[in-house]
Amino acid sequence: MNHSRSARVGVIGGGIRGGMFARALQENPDAELVAICDRSPAVLSTMVDQLGVPGYASTEELLAAHPELTAVVIATPDFAHREAAVLSARAGLDLMIEKPLATEVGDARAILDAAAESGSRIMVGFENRWNVRYSSVRDRLVAEGDPRISAQIIHLNDTVFVPTEMLSWSAKSSPAWFLMPHSLDLACWIGRTRPVSVYAVGARDRLTEAGIDTWDRVNAIFTMADGSHVALNSSWVLPESMPSVFDFRYEIQAADRVVHIDGADDGVIDYGAERGQLVQSAVHERGGRIQGVPIDMVSDFVRLVRGEEVEVPDAHDGLLITAAIEAVHTALETGQVVEISV
User: For residues 264 and 271, what is the distance between their CA atoms, to the nearest angstrom?
Assistant: First the structure.
């Protein structure tokens, strides 16, 4: 195939993820980082200085100034994806949108509708699909004829540092919105199934007392289309003495096997004077270039934009997960089992 379409990309959102994606694009020989966008003047100024590309305060300004763009990466806070995505899709650009696609089904559908009208392609940033720990398990199960999975149990938690210090917008999110999209997408992808209903419980104590009006923890049990069950447990209040800012433990149960995956432990612990810390290698530098799982994801987005055939999580995967996590919150509020339909 002649990959004649250029990957001229803008990044919307200059936070931790947006900055990482921008650098990955700038270091990719098949892509051109054209410009960046962020509503914060301080963040924008820092990004412009670091990357040496033009910066804009709004998506409208970015699109108007750069008609040569062929794609954008959207890394705004979770609840703020709709405006940037719809405007970019209407401009005919391909989109990589950080997970979740949106935090309301109405927003997700608006993004899909805009993309369908213009022909834009959407990739959702469920980055764990690029992590060999999970992809190798999926490949093994597929190669062995998809042995029937009866249950998947996933613990994905953060220390209290994340909602109280790392995120300025945690009151507009929850452990379910911030963490469960990763877990549930993996369960659907590895299990090759989809959720049809959910029951959930949770607690609101510590964060509410700290002035952050959101859930401390959420525990959700999904019934899947194949009759299996997926239990997701996510907390935002683990102690900061934990050896990593996140805790990720995954168990797959089938008739003749159990698979355990530890997603947080890369096998290196640095014991300091006060405590041990897990040394993470999912993102690292080698020879002055950024490497790792989310960088591989960005590389596949560039390939997609250039016209290559690449298997990636798409808008419909994103819509399904948004609908499912929205159902989790409905179940939390009502105490009822909630059907999931998209």
Answer: 16
- pLDDT tens for 234-255 read 999 999 999 999 999 999 999 8
The pair of structure tokens assigned to 295 is: 């960088």
Is the bond preceding residue 100 a cis peptide, omega within 30 degrees?
yes
Q: What is the rounded distance in angstroms from the CA atom of residue 75 to the CA atom of residue 145?
A: 37
DSSP labels, 175-195: HHHHHHHHHHHHHHHHHT--E
**CA distance linking residue 58 with residue 150, whole number of Å:** 47
Query: Computed from CA positions of residues 91, 94, 98, 104, in that sequence, does the dihedral angle turn out positive or negative?
Result: positive
User: Can you read off the two tokens belonging to residue 45?
Assistant: 């100024």
Tally: H helices and E strands in the chain: 11, 17
SS3 4: coil
Q: For residue range 63-104, list pLDDT tens digits in order.
A: 999 999 999 999 999 999 999 999 999 999 999 999 999 999
Q: How far is CA 209 from the centre of its chain?
A: 28
47 vs 141: CA distance, rounded Å: 43
311, with CB counted inside 10 A (0-12, 13-18, 19+), is: exposed
Q: Which two tokens stand for residue 273?
A: 């004077």
Contact at 8 Å (CB) between 244 and 277?
A: yes
Of 173, 129, 128, nearest in space to 264 by CA: 128
pLDDT band at 147 (very low <50, low <70, confident <90, very high): confident
Instruction: Write the CA distances from 164 to 154, 169, 207, 239, 271, integer angstroms.
Output: 24, 9, 8, 12, 25
Over residues 246-265, the mean pLDDT reads: 94
Q: Which two tokens stand for residue 290?
A: 């950024």
Q: Is 100 exposed, middle or buried (0-12, 13-18, 19+ CB in 10 A)?
A: buried
pLDDT of res. 2:
42
